[in-house]
């Protein structure tokens, strides 16, 4: 998958690509990420990337010409026509279903705003969709872009070491994840649940599903409305 990012702060994205499975995925060429900095497309001595809003008021907007040129350069470099996304709190809220949808795209173009945002006409002309990572305001779109890259990249074939890992994720089946345990068997007298030591794979799967259902019911009951258990999971609970 190819992801182009238009950002005044490519360091944010570089930091993500230096770490963990996303970083290894980038190194191995499983995801290809390129950043395009509007500052590189300025023509004035001060490399100006902000401009005043029409109508006045506090704050600045991103200057149109460098932003537009950076978007054009990103588009020209992408082998496929990328689905273009502007990160903003006004956008569609990201969830795991959205991540799966974006992960199916061959190419994404993520545009990160700074200051008070970008000119609405650029959104109309250049952007397919606005997406938000939650109902709070960040000081720019970079963290949101990093969240999307990370979540999408780990679904790309080969990025996670074990293909089953993504299928076992929280939300993969619409439920929260079950608890997990590693060595030692006791921590300050707290024992690992015995079933996990039993070697009985069906019993372990049943226990995990019940834990996931119970946690979802207690912590995020609204998620259960969208959950249908497949035949395999229903049979497991019936056993
Ligand atoms: N930019 C600023 N806040 C944001 C948010 N919540 N989601 C996506 N992009 C943003």
From TrEMBL:
NCBIfam families: PRK00026.1, trmD. Pfam families: tRNA_m1G_MT (PF01746). S-adenosyl-L-methionine binds at residues 113, 133-138. Its EC number is 2.1.1.228. This is tRNA (guanine-N(1)-)-methyltransferase. Specifically methylates guanosine-37 in various tRNAs. It catalyses: guanosine(37) in tRNA + S-adenosyl-L-methionine = N(1)-methylguanosine(37) in tRNA + S-adenosyl-L-homocysteine + H(+). It is an enzyme of class 2 (transferase). It comes from Plasticicumulans lactativorans. Keywords: Cytoplasm, Methyltransferase, S-adenosyl-L-methionine, Transferase, tRNA processing.
């Amino acid at each position: 998958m190819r992801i182009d990012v238009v950002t005044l702060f490519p360091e944010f994205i570089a930091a993500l690509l230096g770490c963990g499975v996303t970083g290894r995925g980038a190194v191995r060429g499983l995801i290809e990420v390129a950043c395009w900095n509007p500052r590189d497309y300025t023509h004035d001595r001060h490399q100006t990337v902000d401009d005043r809003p029409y109508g006045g008021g506090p704050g600045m907007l991103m200057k149109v010409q460098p932003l537009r040129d950076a978007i054009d350069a990103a588009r020209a470099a992408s082998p496929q026509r990328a689905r273009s996304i502007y990160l903003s709190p006004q956008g569609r809220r990201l969830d795991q279903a959205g991540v799966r949808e974006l992960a199916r795209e061959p190419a994404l173009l993520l545009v990160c705003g700074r200051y008070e945002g970008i000119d609405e006409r650029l959104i109309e002309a250049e952007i397919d969709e606005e997406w938000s990572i939650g109902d709070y305001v960040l000081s720019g779109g970079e963290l949101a872009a990093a969240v999307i890259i990370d979540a999408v990249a780990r679904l790309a074939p080969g990025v996670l070491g074990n293909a089953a890992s993504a299928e076992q994720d929280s939300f993969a089946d619409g439920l929260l994840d079950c608890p997990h345990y590693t060595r030692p068997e006791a921590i300050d007298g707290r024992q690992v649940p015995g079933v996990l030591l039993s070697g009985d794979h069906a019993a372990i799967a049943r226990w995990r599903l019940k834990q996931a259902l119970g946690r979802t019911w207690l912590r995020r009951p609204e998620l259960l409305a969208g959950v249908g258990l497949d035949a395999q999971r229903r049979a497991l609970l019936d056993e």
